[in-house]
Amino acid sequence: MIDKTVPNVQAALQGLADGMTLMLGGFGLCGIPENSIQEILRLGVKDLTCISNNAGVDDFGIGLLLQTKQVRKMISSYVGENAEFERQLLSGELEVDLIPQGTLAERIRAGGAGIPAFYTPAGYGTEVGENKESREFNSKMYLLEMGLTADFAFVKAWKGDTAGNLIYKGTARNFNPMMATAGKITVAEVEELVPAGELDPNQIHTPGIFVQRIYQGEQYEKRIEQRTVREEVKRQ
Q: Pfam families given for it (predicted)?
């Protein structure tokens, strides 16, 4: 069985260069590839196109790459928690392609499955559908959307083995599994790395065939994007 492990994040990101298209897993700040993002920041590569559900927050996640202006274009579905993103968008410094969340997920899944395009009703008749081909099926209009792929896909898993098989935990099983299939080079960072054969095959979410490099992550902050708690009710 092929050993996909690399010794550290520096080795995992070898070959990353200016102008590349990256996919970064996660939903809000849950399940994001923290170590990989920090290394992208350290390397200083620029003119990046980042495909992600969101843009992180100002001082964490992809927001760190926006602060240093390493990102040229964002392809996302929700970006409402990042003031720097808003500033760059309104000033014209950042190209943005806002996509309905389900459409974004399906475009990534399609890209990973080798499907070049598909039809969806989402966005027809709105700005989302401008300059896109449309077609009627069963008396309903659909838009043609293109599959998405990337030079690098960065994902984060709870457990992984040396063959690249991955298990995600809870909400971290969001955009990570589909992005893992859509990168020319998929880099997985994991909280726990075990020898091949130790994971229950029935529990694996991403088969190792999709992963080119895997490494043991460290010092995860796992920040909470929005913490909402119920006010204490004082009993009389």
A: CoA_trans
The Cα–Cα gap between 150 and 172 comes to 20
User: Around Cβ 102, how many Cβ atoms within 10 Å?
Assistant: 12
Given a cut of 80, whether residue 224 has pLDDT beyond it is no
Q: How many CA atoms lie within 13 A of 28 on its CB side?
A: 10
* Residue position matching structure tokens 């926006």: 66
Place of tokens 């960065």: 154
Q: Which pLDDT belongs to residue 69?
A: 95
Residue 29 backbone class (left: φ over 0; alpha: ψ -120 to 50; beta: rest): alpha
**pLDDT for the residue numbered 165:** 98
pLDDT digits 0-9 by tens, 151-163:
999 999 999 999 9
Residue 219 CB partners (closer than 8 Å, separation 6+)? 35
Q: Which residue type, as a one-letter code, is found at position 72?
A: R
- The beta strand positions in the chain, using DSSP E, are 21-24, 48-51, 71-76, 95-98, 117-120, 134-137, 140-146, 150-161, 166-167, 183-194, 213-216
Eight-class DSSP state of 27: B
The domains of the chain are located at: 9-216
Q: What is the pLDDT of residues 133-179, one digit of tens each?
A: 999 999 999 999 999 999 999 999 999 999 999 999 988 899 999 99
CATH 1.20.1290.10 correct for 9-216 = no
| Residues 6+ positions from 218 with CB-CB distance below 8 Å | 35
